[in-house]
Here is the input.
Amino acid sequence: MVYEVKRKNNFEVEVDIPGSKSISNRALILAVLNEKNTLLKNMLFSDDTRYMIEALKKLGNKIEVNEVEKTVFIIPNKERIWNAVELFVGNAGTAMRFLPTYIATGTGEVVLTGIERMKERPIRDLVEALEQVNVKIEYMEKDGFPPIKIIAQGLNGGKIKIKGDKSSQYITSILLSAPYSKKPIELEIIGDLVSIPYVEITKKMMEDFGVSTIDNDYKKFVLNPSSYNKIDSYIIEGDCSSASYFFAMSAIAKSKIKLNNIKLDSIQGDIKFLDVLKNMGVEVISNDTNSVTVSCNDIVRGISVDMKHISDTAQTLSVVALFAKGPTEIKNVYNMRIKETDRIRACYNELTKLGAKVIEKEDGLIIYPKENWNEYNKNIVIDTYDDHRMAMSFSLAGLNIENVKINDPMCVSKTFPNYFDEFEKIYKK
Here is the structure.
């Protein structure tokens, strides 16, 4: 399939943002560990969450799904005795990384596998961390990469050292399940911790379910044996990463956008992408407990910004940069290279295809926009690399450039299945 974007500027539109993928998959792990049955509300139903739900079902948890009401009701497998089972998680990084520690809290042999790209995404740091507390894990194919087999005999606890520079999801994996270890776990972070806001989401959600962590400035976490038993229902926030495309739409199309199911005091770090856009010229003109409205009336200005902690919005900014006054530098996002695709290289490829001058750095991009897009009317087909964020971010380019087409648009099903339905609302005004 190919989606053709039609040029459109100076409009007002209201869009609905789905539940957060990051929060949804954390909530699923917390719910299957909870001592109470749990009702999750405003659940996101996407590829990544469906893979997680199916994996948790195969691990003996009873899960009732109501996609109309956007709810999931979970009766946990409290014994956590696994049969010998293989779990396929597609290209869902959160599922591949959150599940190993959860599996380690039980007993049994579980294989975790995914699509070919998942088999290229490293998992060694998490494996070696769990091995430090005597979890037995075997690589089934390539050393350091999925698929892996976990021979679970309960999580013993003890001291763990883990690098923090590749993915905060490794740390989240351990934090979520650590309360069910037999002894305290001391988790020491080696080097800088990437994507700290996502660890903050984890800590906040753990507290909501009844367990606090001892945190020494993101260098060491201490978790004592405990249990989740505080709540029996939880509401999933709207996804701030998904909101980023519509925040950016305002900047690119000089338009007024109201985003429902988003709040400025979100626990998600990616809400800070809005601060980046505000520095470029976007205005927040109103907000309440469940919506934010943004507007932009002029060409935004280029910016130099460290996006280490909000790297999931870097592709979105790279497209905004196409239409800014002056260059934009995106810094300190090396971990983008080990996502669904090498996102730095993918952005370089597609931005240059669109006519921008781009310098690709090991940990970022410098983007020099073309001066007159009105003279640029080629038929451009954007490749999406089976990466949902490439499809959504680069769809925005077609608001200002004629004849932009998006290859494989339905790869957005990973996190925002109805993205193009919401996008189409701009043409109905």
Notes: The longest helix spans residues 196-209. The mean pLDDT is 95.
